[in-house]
Specification:
72 residues, 3 helices, 0% strand, mainly alpha
């Protein structure tokens, strides 16, 4: 599974990142690069069967805090 993830992201980088770099689209290149690295890291962790915690509880805490701060 890990090999497929690496091959898939290698093809993605050839298809997506190199044209942006050659066309000198700096903003788009760096945004895609950062999102690609985050996605690649998550895909590697999932393929290695490492449990990734859900951010749902943290999001719920932040939203409740904001709602309480603006409640009248």
């Amino acid at each position: 599974m890990l090999v497929f993830v690496i091959l898939g992201y290698a093809l993605l980088s050839i298809y997506e990142f190199f044209p942006l770099y050659k066309e000198n689209k700096q903003k788009e290149f760096y945004v895609n690069l950062v999102l690609g690295i985050i996605s690649f890291t998550m895909a590697i962790l999932i393929s290695l069967r490492i449990n990734i915690p859900s951010p749902a509880e943290a999001i719920k805490i932040v939203i409740n805090y904001i709602l309480k701060a603006f409640a009248m």
